Amino acid sequence: MIDILYMNILRLFFILTITFSQIVFGDDKSYVFGWTQLNDPGLMIPRGGTSSGPDVDLDETPNPFWKKIQNDKLTKFEKDRLAILAMQGEHKINFDFMETMGFVENYTPSKPYQSWGTEFVIAVEDEKDFISLQHIMVMFFEQDDGTISDPIVVKHWRQDWKYQDNSISEFVGNRTWEKKNITWNDRKGTWSQTVYQVDDSPRYEGFGEWKHFANSSSWISGETKRPLPRREATIRDDYDIVTGINIHTITPNGWVHEQNNNKATLDNKVVAKEIGLARYQRIENFDWSAGYMYWDETSDFWKMVREAWSEKLKKSKKIKVNSDIDGNILFARLFKLANEHSKGNLDAIDNIESIIEEHIEHKDSSYGYSAKVK
């Protein structure tokens, strides 16, 4: 039987998924870029609901890392590292996505999408040729009576950066990731970026090179495949995979993640193209204490989770992840364990590997067997 804590974790993530995919800034916002020729009023209002949070104060002081990158005496590699580390900090994020063209009969563009969040980003590993950045979401919501809710804290996604990586885990569809080797000529001078889900399972990985100008630094990936985003996974069934180019640009007051995506089927048919912007702006005078407290109490646990996943991905040429097995949700099981560990149950760490193993299937692995998902 699923206990109360397990149900609360599921409910928490459900609330976050709904609000994260439905928050907008009000129905008076127009959004007409790109489809003005259709004269369709429905496209002028982004998809979403009416949830909102308290106003935030933007930090107008320049990002210290952005200023350091401009030092002409630094090597390109040193500037690369500073650009990655510049994504740390406390941010409000605005998300904007919009389809720009379609390739199927009787295509109708989907409504544009807007959302926002507040989260801080910290380096959990910082080595010479490897940097790991963890995102921690801390959200406050305005309630019906006008008061502000207690904070909702979630260990969010993670991004790992590795210099001249010799292989990546490429998403190939059907919840499966396959190891792909990179030749020296292709990887020379590049950094791979691996993005992980909230439970530290893989999401997507690509590689590319940082380009530095006098006051701007951008990383541009090669073509990268990934699963459907949460904002569409529950409402779209006409495509299977997103193939896109990612651009990360460091700005004086934060950073921006640009996307140029193809929404495609597994038989290589493109349904639509999409552009996206995730704008991270540094903020101040915001109460992050609940998030930092959570990370202080659970960081050791999540370090063990990262190591368990790293070992399994390293040994498997192909791995399939089932997030839901007979109603047992992977992220909820791990979040429950993290809570137990923070309450003093140090033995909770011993269950990490067995839980992950129940949700994956190794194919052509050095484990010497194929673990079948039930």
Description:
This protein has 374 residues and is α+β, with helices and mostly antiparallel strands. It has 2 domains: 4-287, no CATH class; 290-365, no CATH class. The protein has 8 helices and 18 strands. It has helices spanning 4-22, 64-69, 76-85, 184-187, 230-233, 289-315, 330-342, 352-358; strands spanning 57-58, 89-102, 113-127, 130-139, 152-163, 167-173, 176-181, 191-196, 202-212, 217-221, 224-226, 241-251, 254-264, 270-284, 316-321, 324-325, 328-329, 360-365. The strands form 3 sheets. The chain has a 10-stranded antiparallel barrel with strand order 2-3-4-5-8-9-10-12-13-14. Strand 3 and strand 4 (130-139) form a beta hairpin. Helix 1 crosses helix 7 (330-342). The radius of gyration is 21 Å and the shape is globular. It starts with a helix and ends in a 9-residue tail after the last strand. 32% of the residues are buried.
Unreliable sequence segments: 18-28, 367-374
Strand count, sense and barrel status of the largest sheet are: 10 strands, antiparallel, barrel
How do the helices and strands follow one another from N- to C-terminus? HEHHEEEEEEHEEEEHEEEHEEEHHE
| Helix content range | 10-25%
Oligomerization: single chain
How would you sum up the global shape? globular
The average pLDDT is: 88
Taken as a percent bin, the fraction of beta residues is 35-45%
- The tally of beta strands, per DSSP, is 18
Distance between the termini: 18 Å
Total of DSSP H or I helical runs spanning 4+ residues:
8
Compute the number of structural domains: 2
**Spatial strand order of the main sheet:** 2-3-4-5-8-9-10-12-13-14
Evaluate the radius of gyration.
Answer: 21 Å
- Structure classification: alpha+beta
